[in-house]
Design brief:
With 197 residues, this protein is mainly α. The chain has 2 domains: 9-94; 95-192. It has 5 helices and 2 strands. A two-stranded antiparallel sheet has the order 1-2. Helix 1 (9-61) runs antiparallel to helix 2 (68-89), helix 2 (68-89) runs parallel beside helix 5 (158-195) and helix 3 (105-140) runs antiparallel to helix 5 (158-195). The longest helix is centred in the first third of the chain and has 53 residues, at 9-61.
């Protein structure tokens, strides 16, 4: 007679605690990604209003705002890095899915796993170099001198911060797709074993 595997109460507590911690992490991560997207959307609206105001001032009142294009450039950088994680979480980034639509579920999960792994590596590089560059610009006090004088590290800071958020989302995606691939593999193996006489 086979022994049934019983989970000890201490193991159940650990599993329950881990589940609660992961749930709390996912909730906090979703909140931060959503706040980033809301902030990106707000910046986009303000930037649009500023550009419209600048055009009106230039063409109707002959009083151009020299700083508006510069602010719009900086705003685009922040919009990109603040909204990217939220968009990735909703699978909204552009992808060429010609190959993905013509392969099995297992292959699709494997390809998505490798894509996520590659993206993790790229995010690690960008985070590392972006952090070094931000720290260097902060320590040296390098400004951006155009119409406005702004400390360059304030502009660069969003790059490592936004990329860390992307990195965490790609890790979530990697775990999800790798789990899908393993489940697909197990399912195929069990079907093959059942088919054997």
């Amino acid at each position: 007679m086979r022994r049934q595997n019983k989970i000890e109460p201490a193991q159940q507590k650990k599993a329950s605690l881990l589940h609660r911690c992961l749930h709390g992490y996912n909730t906090l991560f979703d909140l931060i990604a959503a706040l980033g997207a809301i902030l990106a959307g707000t910046i986009l609206i303000l930037m649009t209003l500023m550009v419209c105001y600048s055009v009106i001032m230039r063409y109707f009142f002959k009083m151009p705002l020299g700083w508006s294009n510069e602010i719009a450039e900086y705003a685009l950088l922040y919009i990109t890095f603040l909204g990217a994680t939220w968009l990735l979480k909703r699978d909204g980034h552009v992808r060429v899915d010609l190959l993905l639509n013509n392969v099995s579920e297992a292959w699709r999960a494997l390809l998505n796993t490798w894509t996520s792994l590659l993206a993790i590596g790229i995010c690690l590089l960008i985070t590392y170099h972006g952090t070094l560059s931000t720290i260097e610009h902060y320590q040296r006090g390098i400004p951006v001198i155009q119409s406005l004088v702004i400390a360059k590290h304030l502009l660069l800071l969003i790059i490592p911060v936004g990329t860390v958020m992307l990195l965490l989302q790609f890790i979530n995606d990697f775990v999800f797709y790798a789990t899908q691939f393993i489940l697909q593999l197990k399912q195929k193996l069990s079907i093959k074993q059942e088919a054997k006489p």
